Amino acid sequence: MHILHRLLTEQANLPIRTLGSCEPSHPSVTPPFMEMTVKPLIYGYMRVRDDAGDEEIRRTELELTGFAEVEGFHLAAIFYEFVPGYHGAFHKLIKELKRADAHHVVVPSLRHFSGHSILRDVMVTQLELEADAEIWTVEP
Known about the structure:
By secondary structure, the protein is α/β, with parallel strands linked by helices. It has four helices and four strands; from the N terminus they run αβαβαβαβ. A four-stranded parallel beta sheet has the order 2-1-3-4, with helices on both faces. The longest helix is centred in the middle third of the chain and has 18 residues, at 54-71. Residues 1-26 have low confidence and may be disordered.
């Protein structure tokens, strides 16, 4: 037995547990039994306007986080699109959904994909077909 371990055990007057022992270290201590549930992953996506202030961005982040909690998801990450007309973060989102085998995306509104309805529909369809993703919106 390691000398430091022996000294600490003797000073604390605790019984020594060995690997493989499944009995509690003290008779009055019972191991807690907890039911573990794993929440499905959901990823956020938002487009950040040039004129958006820090408070507005933080409020939107909190809305996404709150939505995930209320609906029973674990918000894994939020993907931010900063450049108008650019979709780099969107493509990274699809790649991450596939990697994580996740199938849920939350956005503040569908307009965060694009202000143009045709492009927005194409992006939603791309998420559905490539990542088998379901799109959730904070705003109805």
